[in-house]
Amino acid sequence: MADGAVFVAIESHGPQWTVKADTLTAGPGHTVDDTVNDAVRAAITRLVHHREVGADAYTGPVYFMLHNVSSEERARELAAALHAALHGDLEPLNRAIPPTS
């Protein structure tokens, strides 16, 4: 919290991984605009639809959680993309979870 950053972490649950993000840790001055929230929510919905994460995913707008990620590498990629998005950069999210046409 002292750094004013969004908290993002991955954790192992046996062979599966979980990605977590919490924007409250960034403090009251950090805002995530509606465009970013909509893009993140849509990306997580695509992951659920393609069964890359569990249907119990939290899609924000403050707290995000993705269960049942298949590998540490994919969890790290999703965590980095989510972190960038929650700081306003959607490009890593669009690479990790391409928008549908």
* Major sheet description: 4 strands, antiparallel
- Compute the separation of the termini in Å: 38 Å
What is the residue-mean pLDDT, rounded to a whole number? 93
Number of strands: 4
Please report the number of helical segments.
3
Element order: H for helix, E for strand: EEHEEHH
How would you summarize this macromolecular structure in one to three sentences?
This protein is an alpha+beta fold and 101 residues long.
Would you give an account of this structure?
With about 100 residues, the chain is of the alpha+beta class. It contains three helices and four strands, in the order ββαββαα. The protein has helices at about 35-50, 70-85, 90-95; strands spanning about 5-15, 15-20, 60, 65-70. Strand 3 (about 60) and strand 4 form a beta hairpin. The chain is globular.
SSE layout and pairing:
Layout: E1 7-13, E2 16-22, H1 34-49, E3 58-59, E4 63-69, H2 72-86, H3 91-96
Antiparallel strand pairs: 1-2, 2-4, 3-4
Which structural traits does this protein have?
101 residues, 37% helix
